[in-house]
Design brief:
Elements (H helix, E strand, L loop, with lengths): L10 H4 L2 H17 L7 H16 L4 H15 L23 E4 L4 E3 L10 E4 L1 H12 L2 H4 L6 H18 L7 H9 L1
Antiparallel strand pairs: 1-2, 1-3
Length: 183
C-alpha cells in the first residue's frame, strides 16, 4: 500500500473533550463486544453513523450513545425490546412508577405483573417511554427529547446493566468514568 486518504477526521469531536469521551465509549464498547479478527459490517455501520451524529452535534451526545448501544446490542444478538411485557404478553405494557427491566430478556414488565426471581433492574415509566422512543428509530422525536437527570441516570444504568449481563467482557468503561467527571 503506497497511499492512504482520510475519509473523515472528526475534527469537531477532536476539539471537544466531552464529545471525545462519548466517541471513546462507543469505540470501547465496539472493541470489547467483538472477537479478534471478527468482521461485522453492521456494527461498523452503527459505529460510523453514531460518530457522524456526534460530529454533527445536533443531538444530546448521551442520547446518541444510548441509540448506539441499543442498535449495537441488537446487531450482536441482544435486543433490548421495551414493548411487550414478558409475563402477560401485552404489547403495550402498563407503565407506572415501578417497572422492571428484565436483564435476561431485555424486556419491561407491566406494573401489575410480577417478574418473580428473575434478574431485573428497577426503571420508571418515564424512562421506559424514552427507551421505547429510542428503540423506535423515529429520530425526529429524539431531537426534542430533554430527559431529567434522574431519567438519564436510570436509562444509562439500565442499558449498562443489560449490556454487562449479556456481555460481561464489556466491563467497566474508562470513557464513561471520564464522562462522569466532566459532568
Amino acid at each position: 500500500m503506497g497511499q492512504v486518504s482520510l475519509i473523515n477526521g472528526y475534527l469537531a469531536i477532536k476539539k471537544d473533550l466531552t464529545l471525545m469521551a462519548y466517541a471513546s465509549a462507543m469505540l470501547q464498547i465496539t472493541e470489547r463486544s467483538m472477537t479478534d479478527g471478527e468482521s461485522n459490517p453492521q456494527a461498523y455501520d452503527t459505529l460510523s453513523g453514531s460518530l457522524r451524529e456526534l460530529e454533527a452535534n445536533l443531538l444530546n451526545p448521551l442520547i446518541i450513545l444510548w441509540v448506539f448501544e441499543l442498535y449495537l446490542l441488537k446487531r450482536i444478538g441482544f435486543w433490548l425490546n421495551p414493548f411487550p411485557c414478558p409475563v402477560c404478553g401485552s404489547n403495550s405494557a402498563v407503565l407506572g412508577a415501578n417497572n422492571y427491566l428484565l436483564l435476561d430478556e431485555g424486556s419491561v414488565c407491566c406494573t401489575t405483573c410480577d417478574p418473580e426471581n428473575r434478574p431485573k433492574s428497577w426503571i420508571s415509566g418515564e424512562s421506559v417511554s424514552i427507551l421505547r422512543l429510542l428503540s423506535s428509530g423515529k429520530r425526529h422525536y429524539l431531537e426534542n427529547l430533554n430527559p431529567t437527570e434522574r431519567v438519564m441516570r436510570e436509562i444509562t444504568q439500565g442499558i449498562e446493566k443489560f449490556l454487562n449481563y449479556h456481555h460481561q467482557s464489556i466491563g467497566e468503561l474508562t470513557a464513561l468514568k471520564l464522562l462522569d467527571k466532566l459532568e
